[in-house]
Design goal:
The complex is a heterodimer of chains A (about 110) and B (about 140). Chain A has one domain: Hypothetical Protein Ychn, Chain: A, CATH 3.40.1260.10. Helices cover about 30% and strands about 25% of the residues of chain A. Chain A is built from 4 helices and 5 strands, in the order βαβαβαβαβ. The two termini of chain A are about 20 Å apart. Chain B has about 140 residues and is of the alpha/beta class. Chain B has a single domain, classed as DsrEFH-like (Hypothetical Protein Ychn, Chain: A, 3-Layer(aba) Sandwich). Chain B is about 35% helix and about 20% strand. Chain B is built from 5 helices and 5 strands, in the order E-H-E-H-H-E-H-E-H-E. In chain B, strands 4-3-2-1-5 form a 5-stranded parallel beta sheet, sandwiched between helices. In chain B, helix 1 packs parallel to helix 3. Classes of the chains: A alpha/beta (about 110), B alpha/beta (about 140). At the A-B interface, helix 4 and strand 5 of A face helix 1 and strand 5 of B.
Chain lengths: ~110, ~140
Amino acid sequence: MGKYLLIESRDPYEYADTNYFYDLARDLADRGNDVAFFLLQNGVLVARSGAKPDKVGELRQAAPRVRVLADEFALRERGIQKDATAPGIEVTDISTLVDLLVDDGRKAIWH
Amino acid sequence: MSDKTITISLMDPPYDSETTTTALRIADAALDKGISVNVFAYEGAVLLTMKAQQAHPNPVKGTTVEDQHHPTTSGFVGALFEKAAGDVQFQWINCGMCVDERGAADWIDGPKRGGPGDFYKWSQESTNTLVIGTR
């Protein structure tokens, strides 16, 4: 089993290729890999409860084992309160991203 | 103290993308944890460390340089060099050809000139490597 850190900095409203990145997370998890999916910058826009398309909800339904995290700083910059985020999203900070980056054997991919 | 190292490659020029801020935040947080950081600046990112960068006033608002407290990318990078201490290293290499193309060789203290071979070497030696492309 491999370990992956997928960092999504883009939102689906501006970049349709975000769909492929969510698909990648789902497929990696389907194959038994440990996947952390970290939302950064405009990537956090889908973390809002009720966001359409519900990319995070779809991912969590298809691959419940994927750990979805969102950068608190990016949320705050965009006026999104922690209690306004969708269920299952771990609101955290850049320090957690660093911990994941130095987790032995975890491959990191930025999008 | 940690024996771990993160290598980051950057390509965006200053004041163009939020990605630059994020990368510098990652570097800052890593140094706080005692993790060494290497940054390979490619393409427009070689301009991040230009010594001549200056803060500016805002004539629309009528505010001064001091009022604006406008941060420069070279100031951020310089602060990271100052933060690194002891065994925790902060290294920065600007791609030499990218520098020459842009006439961008006058940097703050700290960065060195190099090439993709340096980035490859760092990636082999590091705990992890994060490649951040342009849009």
